[in-house]
Write a structure and sequence with these properties.
The protein has 170 residues and is mainly α. Helix content is 76%, strand content 0%.
Amino acid sequence: MTELPADFRAFHELFREVYIHWSELYLANLADAEEAVDDAFEQLYLSWSEVLEHENPHAYAWVVVKHRTIDYARARGRRPTVVDQAAFETAALRDAVDPIGELSESMHVYTAIQALPERQHDVIVLQYCLGYSTQETADILGVTPAGVRSTTRYARHRLQRALGLEKEER
């Protein structure tokens, strides 16, 4: 058996669980998420020297994982389930005085998140649905923390508009 390069092993160690966490949100199945992520890592390993030549290997790997997850969802005849699962797993829903009202509100929020541009969507899902910090999100996406903060700010403004929560200008 061939020994994996140390940098690949370190990358795998750092990001496998994060990628599975994200993939499971979309596939709604841990086994499928693990399989999709492991396939993505296999793809990354087979072209590891080329991956490292990319300007931003973390960003490249993120795209590979996202595409592999989408492929798995399509192959199983499913669409990604972030809206459904996130709404039902919201902590506020479990403790809500008006669960139906809370569910309706959650569905509107998650539908608005789905409509965000890809980078904004990724940042919001990683930070607000999965609970990663700004630094962790930056590391996962291969961007700077300032880039995450800026993207979050734009995404929040877009969500406020979509949900009719904009403050009136005076």
